[in-house]
Amino acid sequence: MLTSVDADLMRVLSDPLRLRIVTLLAGETLCTTHLVEETGAKQTNLSNHMKVLREAGVVETEPCGRFTYYKLRPDVLAGLSAQFAALAESARAADGNKRACP
């Protein structure tokens, strides 16, 4: 069963720019400058999205000199994926179940 935490995470990931950021971070750890170059987003806009991703626990920061690097937390995505896999399995098991109308 999906919880409100899972629903919040889906909301966070439903934004196209945040999904693009997550996709980029799945391949490598990147700093803000890299993410601005890759996405074409303005730095302030990108920073706001990174704050949302951090608060949701999707990414973590890694300071490196005057730069901040971001890396994905795959365990968070795997947990959400497991919830969807469980829903899919439940739907397969329920195939053919139909509640009669009163």
3D structure, described in words:
The structure is a single chain. By secondary structure, this protein is α+β, with helices and mostly antiparallel strands. Helices cover 60% and strands 14% of the residues. It has a three-stranded antiparallel beta sheet with strand order 1-3-2. The protein is elongated, with a radius of gyration of 18 Å.
| Secondary structure tally: strands | 3
* Arrangement of strands in the largest sheet: 1-3-2
- End-to-end Cα distance, whole Å, is 27 Å
Arithmetic mean pLDDT: 91
Proportion of residues in helical segments: 55-70%
The shape is elongated
Structural category = alpha+beta
> How large is the radius of gyration?
18 Å
The poorly predicted ranges are: none
Order of helices and strands: HHEHHEEH
Strand fraction equals 5-15%
Q: Describe the sheet with the most strands.
A: 3 strands, antiparallel
Quickly count the helices. 5
